[in-house]
Amino acid sequence: MIDLKTVFSVSQLARHLNDHLRNEFGSIRIQGEVASFTRASSGHWYLALKDESAQLKAVMFRQRNVLAGFFPAVGDKVEVLAQLAMYEQRGELQLIIDVMKKAGQGNLHEQYLQLKTKLTQEGLFDSARKRPLPSVVFNLGVITSLQAAALADVKQALARRAPHVEYSVYHTAVQGEQAAAQIIEALRKADSAGHEALVLCRGGGSLEDLWSFNVEAVVRAVAACKTPIVVGVGHETDVTLAEFAADLRAATPTAAAELISRPTSELLSEIQSLHVGLRKALRHRAQMLVQRVDRAELGLLTPTAYLNTLESRLSTANGRLPRLVERGLAQQTNSIQVLWESVSLEMNAAQNSANRSAQLLESGLMAAQRRNIAASDSRVDRLGSVVEAVSPQRTLERGYAFLQPQHGNAVVRSVLDVQTGDALRATVADGEILVNVREKTELRGPFNEDVKNSR
What we know:
Oligomer: single chain
CATH topology of the largest domain: Rossmann fold
Number of helices: 13
Largest sheet: 5 strands, mixed, barrel
Number of strands: 13
Order of helices and strands: HEEEHEEHEHEHEHEHEHHHHHEEEH
CATH superfamily of the largest domain: Response regulator
Number of domains: 4
Strand content: 15-25%
CATH architecture of the largest domain: 3-Layer(aba) Sandwich
Radius of gyration: 55 Å
Low-confidence stretches: none
Distance between the termini: 132 Å
Helix content: 40-55%
Shape: elongated
CATH class of the largest domain: Alpha Beta
Mean pLDDT: 82
Structural class: alpha/beta
């Protein structure tokens, strides 16, 4: 009981009443009709609830009303969970609303929470089962109503951002009794059509308007899609179970179109970069091949250098041949001398045996000498064949020729050694040919350099 001797200030009494109301009533459920509604710049809602006989002012702060999922309008029947409080500055009784929903939707909200819990426990919403979207999409399937504003939003977003994307629309009702079955059938058709990705979308609405996207069969159909799918339903505050089951949730239909498509300008820039990289790679490869050809050309012998090599080998062979023959004969002579002295020392001891041995030795000596001479002849023949094969005459017989001035013994080694109109002698295998220089062409490149360096 309040002591009558106690004198309260106005603010003390207002605070006392506020505490009393909070302690007495706590949170209460109230149902009524929206009599007025104002949305402040701060985001808070100020409204009044009424019935046939009474009216109460109410406030719903921004951090709470963003969860409502709709904007109340005058005349709407709503149900709120609120606290009764005194607005002390004005001395007005008001409701501080925590939760608001349209009247009659309580059962739907409970169903939503129960189904969400069930499917979450099954793992239907796990991030591990969600697939990444393709990096580039050219063929898109859009599941929505042909009359929906969401379709216009998707078309506008694709035309502005990614005109390269082709899309097919699969019509379905998006609310009403037949909507769930039609959505499932449209998903099945789109999923089997070979699209690279799918978008399921519709505009905003109340929980009842969006309920088709909370039907268990629809949610499971979204999760069962083999094609990567994005679901964008309603506004940012609208969240349906179909969005949880999708590979990616979009806040709005427009956002869904933007998430599924890369900008054409970005793709063109990437193609340009790849083109530049390919040209660099081809240029580098061509340079490597040119270098290999240059190295191969450096390894080739010019005709003049080849003749010089043959002449050098022939000279070496001619120089070695007499020495080889002389050395072979000296060795044979020395061997004969040794054998002869050995025979002479034994002749006095056993003349008869010596005679027989001498005959045998002489016979063997002659045979050995014949074999050695035959072997020497064979080696001489082989060396002669080599000498003959590399001789200048054989080179000329293979089609080569060398040029000399008509009067003179110099050899023409370069186009720089002659002038147009000069008379030349071309020596071939079986004679000489007189020729006149009508035209000359100087070779360019590494081969010409080799010719100049060999002079």
